[in-house]
Specification:
With about 290 residues, the protein is α/β, with parallel strands linked by helices. It has two domains: about 130 residues, P-loop containing nucleotide triphosphate hydrolases (Rossmann fold, 3-Layer(aba) Sandwich); about 100 residues, no CATH class. It is built from 13 helices and nine strands. A five-stranded parallel β-sheet has the order 2-5-8-1-9, sandwiched between helices. The chain has a two-stranded antiparallel ribbon with strand order 3-4. A hairpin with a 6-residue loop joins strand 6 and strand 7. The longest helix is centred in the C-terminal third of the chain and has 15 residues. The radius of gyration is 24 Å and the shape is elongated. The two termini are about 25 Å apart. The relative contact order is 0.13.
Length: about 290
């Protein structure tokens, strides 16, 4: 990494977002190629937060488009507010002859029209229908579109840095994937997780942190769980433990405040059943097997 050109290494992380070398590479490759960066990974691995910290790290404003099941590509470009125009025509408010008054730019449109270069986050692209990713390809490639009602062209002054997240809820079209730089955020290993925790809980007692992480990674290894606890839930759990004053010794014997980690009744019932069977909790990292003891 030290041999990279300064012109290539635009993003190197921020104090508030700990990145892996491979993620830094992916961000900078997307910037260099001027292609969208498609980020996948399980919930809670920081996909959405990445865009905020790329914005911070590069000193650029950010626009966000959070995709829903009803989202259409057109919504990202602009919306023609026919309802407002009809109301103005009925009640005499506004100049209804000027259609431009009723054109509302969407997130992509606002980024294209902006004077400054932006970071554009298209969040959870896989929530929309199957055609949605392909429907936004042309505009993202050409960095321009036409407002059909007025004939006006909206053209990007500067190509935005586009980050797209997916939770793998459905497969994305091949044509879309070919136009993206791809990165899968692996769930952090314990050493990287310690650095992430330190951002949120600096100077945490090392013994307490070790006991917390041991229980956390043990939970994630339980095959009965439908939803494994994520990084954000770990951070919340530590906050509760600190405020309650629970000691490292108490954490050895139980998993207190389980509702901060497990978020459905099936998982809490599974852990209760484990207790009822006389299941034992790990006492050391050796109990978690070779994956955590290399």
């Amino acid at each position: 990494m030290n041999d990279w050109n300064d012109d290539f290494l635009r993003f190197s992380g921020t104090e508030g977002y700990i990145t892996s070398p491979s993620l830094v590479e992916a961000v900078n490759a997307a910037i260099a190629l001027e292609r969208p960066l498609l980020i996948k990974g399980e919930p809670g691995t920081g996909k959405t937060l990445l865009a905020q910290h790329v914005s911070e790290g590069l000193g650029m404003p950010m626009e966000q488009w959070h995709i829903k099941s009803t989202s259409k590509a057109q919504d990202g470009l602009y919306v023609y507010d026919t309802v407002q125009r009809l109301n103005d025509a009925r009640f005499g408010d506004g100049d209804v002859s000027d259609i431009r008054t009723y054109i509302r730019l969407g997130p992509i449109g606002r980024v294209f029209a902006a004077e400054e270069r932006h970071v554009l986050l298209i969040d959870e692209v896989d929530k929309a229908d199957l055609e949605f990713p392909n429907d936004i390809l042309l505009e993202l490639d050409e960095m321009r579109f036409t407002v059909m009602e007025t004939g006006d062209e909206v053209k990007a002054r500067q190509r935005p840095i586009v980050l797209i997240t997916s939770n793998n809820e459905k497969e994305l079209p091949d044509a879309f994937l070919r136009r993206c730089v791809f990165h899968f955020i692996e769930f952090p290993e314990p050493e990287l997780m310690k650095r992430i925790v330190d951002v949120h809980h600096p100077h945490l007692d090392t013994t307490l942190l070790d006991k917390v992480l041991l229980k956390f990674y043990w939970l994630r290894e339980q095959s009965e769980l439908r939803k494994k606890p994520s990084t954000s839930e770990l951070i919340d759990w530590i906050s509760v433990l600190l405020r309650s004053g629970i000691s490292a010794e108490q954490i050895e014997e139980q998993i207190p405040f389980l509702g901060s980690l497990l978020k459905n009744e099936q998982d809490t019932e599974a852990l209760q059943a484990y207790d009822d069977r006389g299941g034992r909790y790990p006492e050391s990292w050796q109990d978690l097997g070779p994956r955590y003891n290399n």
